[in-house]
Amino acid sequence: MDKGTVLVVEDEPNIADLVDLYLSREGFRVLKKATGEDGLAAIRDQRPRLVVLDVGLPDIDGLEVCRRIRATSALPVIFLTARADEIDRVLGLELGADDYLTKPFAPAELVARVKAVLRRTDGPQTAEILQAGHAVVDVGRREIRVEDAAVDFTTKEFDLLRFLAERAGLAMSRQQILDHVWGHDWYGDERTVDVHIAQVRKKLGASCTIATVRGLGYRLEPASR
Ligand code: CA
Fold it and tell me: Is residue 125 very low, low, confident or very high in pLDDT (cuts 50, 70, 90)?
């Protein structure tokens, strides 16, 4: 029942061992690395399906590790954070973490998050193409194109834009967005949606308008021609 490799980059051995224990039990092959540099080397050499990444590492921190991962791939990343200010940094940066957990966490919760992220990111391939204003959401290639050029979107940003593009012209509440894009088993707050919307707007520029619906959420405006 090999489900593929999960890399755990965590310098606290007891936490790394706990994650290893629970994910191994689920059929994942677990690789443990205690520094950011070793983690990046393992990503290059071992091609994991997902990375569980501690923010506080002894050499380069987890945020920088994620930045370097994102420079070349959309490999799913789940952050482990120890403090509230780390959560703010994770959410506030354009890093595209797929999820995060705050220490201390229940190992079963981590297992659930890992599975949920893999379900979202390994969905069946389709050839579907959606319009988001004048931008193109290529579901098959998991690519956003603005004026025929691919724009770098994180996993979550892509899923968010796809969700709104599928419902162009309709106002969607933050809770609806959270439920569909982050999943019912995700316990973050609605501010997460605002942070991601801001990033998506920035990347889309004038090609697509995502309107704020006061007191509710957001609406993607269909292109007017
Ligand atoms: Ca640490």
Answer: very low
Distance 58 CA to ligand 1 centre (A): 7
56 Cα: distance to centroid of ligand 1 (angstroms): 4
For residue 69, report the distance from its CA to the centre of ligand 1, in Å.
Answer: 19
Q: What are the φ and ψ backbone dihedral angles of 117, each rounded to 5 degrees?
A: -65, -40
- The Cα 175–Cα 194 span in angstroms is 11
pLDDT digits (tens, 9 = 90+) for 97-119: 778 888 999 999 999 999 988 88
pTM over 0.85: no
**Are 78 and 162 found together in one domain?**
no
CATH number at residue 31: 3.40.50.2300
Residues 91 and 143 in one domain: no
In a domain, 168, yes or no: yes
Q: Please tell me the distance between residue 188's alpha carbon and the centre of ligand 1 in angstroms.
A: 22
Least confident of 69-78, 117-126, 171-180, 201-210: 117-126
Query: Strand ranges (DSSP E) for 96-201?
Result: 99-102, 129-132, 135-138, 143-146, 149-151, 171-173
Instruction: Select from 180, 164, 182 the least CA-distant residue to 218.
Output: 164
Residues with CB under 5 A from ligand 1 (ion): 11, 54, 56
- Cα 57 to ligand 1 centre (Å): 5
Å from CA of 9 to ligand 1 middle: 9
Q: Do 88 and 137 fall into the same domain? A: no
Asked if 105 and 114 touch (Cβ cutoff 8 Å), the reply is no
